[in-house]
Structures are given as C-alpha cells and as structure tokens.
Specification:
It contains 7 helices and 13 strands. With 272 residues, it is α+β, with helices and mostly antiparallel strands.
Length: 272
C-alpha cells in the first residue's frame, strides 16, 4: 500500500541528510535519457529509515558490513517499472523515497494490483522462489531504491545471524500481510475493506513521521479497487458515503480522516 501526506518538515524522524522520504530526489539519467544506478551516498548506518528497513536491531559493526553490500541506489520515474514479470531475480530493493505498486496480469489482460510499498519497505521478495520475478513493480511517483544484491545478502546473512533473523522477520511480515489481504477480500463488505485500507495506510505513514490523519493518495481509485477486489464505482461511492457520514474529508486525492474511531468501528464489525 502506498501513499504520502502533506509534506512534513524534515526535522522529523524520517529526515535523512536534508531529504524527506516522501520526496523523490532529482533523477540521474545517461546520455540517452535512461534511468541509471547511482553510487550510494547515504550509508545504512546513518540512514534514519534503518528502523523501518532491513537493518533493524543490527549492531554498529553489522551495519557497517551491510554498508559495503548496499553499494548503489536506483532512481525510477513515475510510471516506470523497477522490474517486470519474468525478469531474472538478482537483487532486493529497499524503498528509500517514493511509492510503488506491485501487480500481476490476469488471463484476460487486466492488471491486478497485489500491493503498495512505501519508504522503508522491501521489493523483490517474489523472485526468490524460482529466480524470476512474478510481478511488475511500478513507481507511483518519482522514487529511489537501495539495491541489495541477493547472493551477497545470503553470504552476509550466514556470517551475521542477526541479519539473517531480521530477513526472516521481513519474510514473515509479508506472509502476515498476505493473510490480511485474504481477510479483506474474503469476509469484509466494501465499506469495511476501504476503512481497513485507509487505517493501514495512516498507521504505516505515522510510523514514518507523517500525519496520522491527513494524506494524499498516490494511487488511483481504480488501483485501490483492484487491490481491494472492488469496482471503481464502488470505491468512489464508498468514499462519498464516508464523507457524507463525517468519517472523511475528501478533495480528489487529498484525504483527511475526521473520525478514526468510526472507521475502526466499521472494521471491527466484520469480526462480529
């Protein structure tokens, strides 16, 4: 899930050497205009996203070892793909700035959105099983990722058990998230699905130093519907209903949660 908020000051916990995770940096391109990888300038050991990303709980010495592994970062323009279905799997990608969606193509040619990823989250785990990516990762805004070569990560994980433990926790988190999506699609009404989606977004954003109530959606309503298993008309109608009931203030993609407890009550009702 991916979104951003009204840009906060960079004095918050997510500021990194004058950069905000919600703001993409200028893109580096070669002479032909193609996006290219850049030397990694901000080390894992000094990055303020480290508490949300791969190196959680690692010692200073382990972080310095990880710095040598994460040697490049890559910029991806809005609408461009980081990787596509069928691409050879070589690296994991930690989102440093910006937002992505992952999607798969259905047999009828439609794209099914499978997730939204924001700063501090990993992309590419889908490629581990058969050495090929099984989805497309598309930037929803100009973004930056840290490139983590998987073969080197495996070697370092064998040397540092804390890193291996953290990587297992990340993979487990993805499994738990998939279970949550299955719950959304299998047992919740449209209102409950959208309420759970918005609450999840605000919780993840708050952990990154953004507002807990105001956000700007980086995905379209059609993409939200694809992820939640709802038609575009249903998503738009539900947003309007939430506004009429005083739960939200909606101005196109700008959302302000007015009654968080009311949204939570909707989600809780699905378990009754």
């Amino acid at each position: 899930m991916s979104t951003t908020t009204q840009a906060p000051s960079c004095s918050g916990q997510t500021a990194t050497h004058g950069e905000c995770p919600g703001r993409a940096l200028p893109l580096a391109r070669d002479a032909g205009g193609a996006v290219k990888a850049e030397p990694f300038k901000v080390a894992c050991s000094s990055c303020n996203l480290r508490e949300l990303c791969l190196p959680v709980g690692l010692s200073r010495n382990d972080l310095e070892q990880l710095d040598s592994l994460v040697a490049t970062r890559r910029t991806v323009s809005r609408g461009d793909t980081l990787f596509r279905t069928g691409d050879a799997f070589q690296s994991l990608y930690a989102v440093r700035t910006g937002f992505f969606k992952t999607c798969v193509s259905a047999e009828d040619g439609r794209d099914q959105v499978t997730g939204f990823q924001m700063a501090g989250e990993l992309l590419g785990l889908d490629g581990i099983s058969n050495d090929r990516h099984s989805c497309d990762a598309v930037a929803l805004e100009d973004s930056q990722v840290c490139v983590i070569p998987y073969s080197q990560l495996e070697e370092l994980s064998r040397e540092f058990t804390d890193l291996q433990h953290q990587f297992h926790k990340i993979m487990s988190r993805e499994i738990v998230r998939d279970h949550g999506v299955m719950l959304l699609l299998g047992s919740m009404r449209a209102e409950e699905r959208l309420a759970a989606f918005l609450l999840n977004l605000t919780q993840r954003l708050q952990a990154r130093g953004f507002s807990a109530s105001s956000l700007v959606l980086r995905m379209t309503r059609e993409e939200i519907g694809s992820y939640l298993g709802l038609k575009l008309e249903t998503v738009s109608r539900t947003f309007s209903k939430f506004q009429e009931e005083g739960l939200l203030e909606v101005k196109q993609r700008q959302i302000r949660i007015v009654d968080q407890a009311g949204l939570q009550a909707l989600v809780n009702s699905s378990s009754c």
